[in-house]
Amino acid sequence: DGETGVVSAVARVTVSVAPVNDPPVPTNATVGSNAGQTTVIELSGTDVDEGDVLAEAFIETNPAEGKLYDVFPNGTVKGEIHDSALPKRLTSLKVAYLYTPSDDDPLGFDEDGVMDVDATFSFSVADEAGARSVSDEVKMRVYTPFHALQDGASNVNSKSSGNVPSPEYALNAGRTSTE
Length: 179
Description:
The chain is mainly β. The protein contains two helices and twelve strands, in the order βββββββββββαβα. It has helices at 145-150, 167-171; strands at residues 25-26, 29-34, 38-42, 45-46, 54-61, 67-71, 77-80, 88-89, 94-98, 120-127, 136-143, 159-161. The chain is elongated. The relative contact order is 0.27.
C-alpha cells in the first residue's frame, strides 16, 4: 500500500471491451416502375460491423403519389402500408410500389416517358442486433404505360409484375406530353 510495506499478491484481471454496434447505413436508390404495374423493390444498406447482416427494414414515409405494399419473405405482395401505421416494420427487406393514374390526373411526362409523379418514400434498415439506421430515400421513376410498351420496359431496373395497360390508356382524356 506504500505506507506499511505490505505487498499484496499479484492478481490478474481480464477486461473485455465489446465494440459499439454501429447502425447500418441505408442505400438510397432510384427505381423505375411502369404506371399500373406493381414493382417489387429490395431495400438495402451496409453495416460496418463485421458479421452483422441487415435483418429488417422500416418504411418511414409513404410517397405522395402511389401506394406501398408489404412483401412477405415468400414473395407474396399483401397489405397496403397506410400513413397511420408509419413507421412500418416490413416482414422482409422488400416493399412493392404501385402507381395507378386516374382519368382526373394530369399526365405530364418527359421524352423518356417518365411521368411527373411525386413518388419518393423514405426507409430505414436495422441489423440483427437491433441497431437502426437513419432514414434514406427511394425515388420512383414512373413510366407511362405507352412508353413501357414502346421499349419493352427495358427502362425499368426492377422486378415488375401485373398487366401493362393499353397504349390508349396513357393517351386518353385529353392528356398530352410535356415535351
